[in-house]
Amino acid sequence: MPQLLLHIGIPRTATSLIQSFLAKNAGRLRANGIFLGSRHPRAFAETQAIYDDGRRGEELAKSLIDRSQGAHAILLSDEDLSRRLRLAPLSDFAKHFSGVKVIVALRRQDLWLESWYLQNIKWQWDTALAKLTLRQFLDRRDQFHWIDYDLLMGRLSEFFGDNNIVPFVFEKEMMPGGPVTHFCRLLGINSIDGWTKGDNENVSLSPVYAEFLRQLPLLDFPDPIKVHLEAACLEIHKEAKDNLSPRESSPLLIEHDERQRILDSFESGNRSVARSYFSREALFLEGMPDPTSEIGRLELPPPNELMSRLVAPYVKALVKRVTK
């Protein structure tokens, strides 16, 4: 009976890049005894089935085991699993396997909030968050329960056991070779030389383009049209991002004092996780940004530049997409 490997995110920790890599190298994974359980990079359909109905979860488990053809482990990756408050269906699903390992990435909360804010503007799938200002978004941060890592790890341990949780810190120094290489090491694969690279990195918009997209009426349109509206903005951002000023391009959105307050609110829980899983006092080792660092401004260019720099290129990109 194979073991179940669950990669549950959290979101904004290179999950799209990792999933793309895994999908492109499914054959190499199988040669290393790991069966990729989804036919798509992200196992959304599979995890949804687990939560829809316990019988569907049992059927899925049997199907995965049959298709794994003797692999020692079956891997499913879906970053939204970390956001689910109900873990019982996932725990019941895991019981059909010889064991389970839950892999979860932990990103420093202030940096995650900045990235998640830009992501909600970029794709606008959550109507409650898509149009908020940064201030409004930060005021709602308590609803992002999954970045309370002490709470998250406690819930995971309750259902799966301490020894079955494999956390890693999403910081450059903690992931030698990058997140994909580090993730593979967690799978027991120490070298990926010659493997095909993933190509689905989910890059954030620069602040000026995020603000432009936030103010467009995307929510007034059905999803097929909204996809084109979003994609056109991504295209003009890609073409212009190297020529933006620091205030238009800095990934830092939160002022230094507020950043410190956010981290202070998570300090006790982070220390508890660091002690329990990493045998150290600090969970995150990267220092705070310098107080003098440029803060990205979520504001549009002055009116005399808005048309030439954003509106006209956007219309051209949109027309080009539509005429294709």
Automatic annotation (TrEMBL):
<protein>
    <recommendedName>
        <fullName>Sulfotransferase family protein</fullName>
    </recommendedName>
</protein>
<dbReference type="InterPro" id="IPR027417">
    <property type="entry name" value="P-loop_NTPase"/>
</dbReference>
